[in-house]
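We emphasize that the prediction below concerns an isolated chain of 331 residues; any contacts that depend on oligomerization or on bound cofactors are therefore not represented. The input was used exactly as deposited, without trimming of termini.
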Amino acid sequence: MLLLAACDRQQAIIERSDTDPARALLRLQLPTRPDPQTYRDWTWVECRITLPSTVPASAVLHLPTLRLTGGMVRADMAYTHAVPKARTTGHSVALGVDWGLNTLLGAGALRLGQDGRITVLGAGGQFRAAGILAKQHRLRRQSERLHAKADQYQRLIGGDSRHHLVGKHAVIRDEIRHVSARRQNLNDALAWAAARWTVDQAIAARATAIYLEDLRSMEAKGMGRTLNTRLSQQVRGKISDRMRHLAAEHGIAVVTVPARNTSKHCPQCLTPLQHRKAPDKPTVAGWKWAICPHQSCRCRATATTAPGGGSPPADSPTRPKPSPTRPPAPW
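Result of the prediction step, given as a token string:
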């Protein structure tokens, strides 16, 4: 890896092509011998770089970081370009995003009318990542087993460096690092995909703000050993950071909303819900099912997140469809 960010123009220069904005020319001085002594031991080398389509034509290029991958030189390109400033007030169309467990994200666009009424735009959408989440949990369980085995080997080895388990312990430690790298790469890819999907939904709805639940204060407990671990292993923090980064390029504001009481009221009549363990156990307290006690409503819905974490999926057959003439709600 060669970091060029700290180099001055006497050592490295990058310029965009005048004829093709998708190409750039990197010129840098490299030594011609292992132990350069004078200026003659250095020579200029030209590297032609093909820029991806995500780099705007008007962006200012900065010196990249060069990496050798598979016998080829790859450049991590940094650039700067102007973006519209996100507004802090005056939003009329916004995208509400809800966290889920099996359905990672659910989103729906809303419009605030001049009379103060909120109108739902379309049926919303869901970002489903069941396959990736299943692989994520499988790697987590594999990592837990490897750590348990490594700890057992360490206890048996003690301080004996000539113990016959030293070699096996080293192999297990290498496998732990390999699995950890796979988990990190998977989480990064999932975070970027989820954030890109959310921002694309906001752009399609012409929304100027994204309202996102802030679940940093959520404590995963009381839901069983397996589900507690799954809730704690979510990559919500990475998704939120990537979402802010991508939304800033389009001038979209990302607003975090406290998760407390977001699942307290019925989505149809705004009556406080009764959270129960199952639909056939209306007297047993729980969190999976929410039942509206209002006699004329009697809405029943499944919760896809932890208590205070949102509402059921948009395509759930038990979820009531919101009414466009709902009474005004605080924006």
